[in-house]
Fold:
Amino acid sequence: MRQPAEVTARVRGLFVGAASGAVAIAAHALGGGAVSPDRSSITLLIAACAVVGTAIASTRVRRGASELAVLLAAGQTIGHLAMTMSPEHHHGPHMTAHMLVAHLIAIPSGAVLIRAAELAIARAASSVRRTLSVLYTVPLVATRLPLVRAARLAPGARWFLVGSGVGTRGPPTFA
Structure:
């Protein structure tokens, strides 16, 4: 079974990679870039976002939205650069004011949404785990143990056991 931190890291990588690609396309369109980019820039964007998501999924998960904001900013920068590599791209690698505002709005809001999704996934997994542990426990059935009785000794065996030693055993009489 996978550790919860490993699953959370994979989910974080998936969300950051997907959000980086989506925001790169949306900000590019808002900033006056190509609304429908060609195949080469989309392929490059998907590859870049997959690399960003995989890199984030392989890192150790820390807590907090500030780390997510930094990761989203890096992912969106890489996504923006992937979008500008297209041969038909007309404004160069620089950003317009609208494009920059769209990125700056998307970074903190994306970080908060991804952090909320991480917490929701952790709580849902915890609830499922508790529910399954209750459902799959085997109830203990109270069973009666059989009563074991001592067997009767033959009359000759008793005299053999009693008469085997010298005298009786026990504490001294003055005790």
